[in-house]
Specification:
alpha/beta; L,D-transpeptidase catalytic domain-like; two-stranded antiparallel ribbon; 34% strand; globular
């Protein structure tokens, strides 16, 4: 998979976002100068498929508080979601799904799916009344049965686009 460096990112922050060691990121990019990265630079992220090889993608609308599952660009299903509140906004941009963890416990409901933005994910909830609201600390909350269905459908590496 290829990551394009964004403003404010460091090699260390990119490694953290993908839960990789800095050494493995450097090893995947021979001829790369680790302390000289720049906006727009393309970096190989080892261990993840290219999102272009996956027929599924996800579009999250923060203003509509919906998550749309797409298959080959066509809407397959739309789910209601809860998103970040003021001062804890859900990050905007393009990410990939990097792991899945069933039964994470606590407020995360029955499934956690990490995004390639450290600390953020799509997860279930122990408070179903929060769905459809601006309530989280930046994550995307779903009804437990919805996040379980989504998790069974999409593979690791799925593109997740979050927009206002």
């Amino acid at each position: 998979m290829i990551h394009t460096v964004k403003r404010g990112e460091t090699l260390s922050s990119i490694a953290g976002d993908y839960r990789l060691s800095l050494a493995s990121l450097i090893a995947a990019n021979p001829g790369f100068t680790p302390n000289l990265i720049y906006v727009g630079q393309r970096i190989v992220i080892p261990g993840f498929p290219s999102p272009s090889t996956i027929p599924f993608s996800i579009y999250i609308s923060l203003s509509n508080r919906t998550l749309t599952l797409l298959y080959q660009g066509q809407t397959r299903k739309v789910y209601p979601v809860g998103v970040g509140r003021m001062l804890h906004e859900t990050p905007r941009g393009d990410f990939i799904l990097i792991n899945k963890a069933p039964n994470p416990g606590g407020p995360y409901g029955t499934m956690w799916m990490s995004l390639s933005k450290k600390g953020y994910g799509i997860h279930g909830t122990n408070d179903p009344s929060s769905i459809g609201k601006y309530v989280s600390k930046g994550c995307v909350r779903m009804h437990n049965q919805d996040v379980e269905e989504l998790s069974r459908t999409i593979p690791i590496g799925t593109l997740v686009s979050i927009r206002p």
